[in-house]
Amino acid sequence: MLSRLRRLLIARDGLAAVEFALIAPVLVTLLLGTIELCNALQCHQKVTMVASTASDLVAQASTVSTSDMNDVFSAASAIVYPFQQSNISIVVSSVLSDGKGNGTVAWSVANANGQPLSKNQTVTLSQPIMSTCDANGNNCTPCAQGSCSVILTQVSYSYTSPIGKFLVGAVPMTDYFYERPRKVVSIPAPS
Q1: Which DSSP helix (H) or strand (E) runs through 172?
Q2: Is 68 helix (H, G, I), strand (E, B) or coil?
Q3: Which 3 state secondary structure label does DSSP give 1?
Q4: For every one of its 191 residues, what pLDDT tens digit does the chain have, with 9 covering 90 and above?
Q5: Of 145, 149, 140, which Cα lies nearest the Cα of 184?
Q6: Are 59 and 180 in contact (CB under 8 A)?
Q7: Is 50 exposed, middle or buried (0-12, 13-18, 19+ CB in 10 A)?
Q8: Which of 81, 133, 138, 175 is deepest in the core (most CB within 10 A)?
Q9: What one-character DSSP code corresponds to residue 168?
């Protein structure tokens, strides 16, 4: 009996299989978690790209029509591919300076999932974009009322991962982007 116990303690057959069986669930969890995190980061990057692209497209124009805005929404929505495009909300607004460094909404248009901002709604800007600053970015002076404007694009997306949808559920992602019009002081409302 003692010799059998001694042989059992010395034996190493099957040890690797047992160790692998113990560590495999942890490795699979780490792999799926890495894939999940990479997908979420890629989706958030695409949400940021949608906001900057929509603002840039509108800011390049002197005027925009309803048809132009529909084209902007279609082009911007296509950026989120391969993620689901029906979950995206895009709101594009023209914000005029109020003379105090902030602005008021001149017009606002949203895609099918979005809710446009109210006309004359006050918008507090997080950057001194409605101001004129010196070369160092210090000593900013707000633009006079109505003398400058920005195109503000707000994007919301409800991200649902193909791997973790039963664990995490939908993750809301939002971003916004400001862009000054290039050709005119203020772009008129879409007609």
Answers
A1: strand 171-179
A2: helix
A3: coil
A4: 777 767 766 766 777 777 888 898 999 988 888 888 888 899 999 999 999 999 999 999 999 999 999 999 999 989 999 988 888 999 999 999 888 778 899 999 999 888 998 998 888 877 777 777 777 767 778 888 878 889 999 999 998 887 776 667 788 999 999 898 998 888 898 88
A5: 149
A6: yes
A7: buried
A8: 175
A9: T
Residues 6+ positions from 65 with CB-CB distance below 8 Å: 190, 191
**String of DSSP letters for 109-164:** EE-TT--PPPTT-EE--SSGGGEE--TTS-S-EEPPTTS-EEEEEEEEEEE--TTT
Of 56, 66, 59, whose CA–CA distance to 187 is shortest? 59
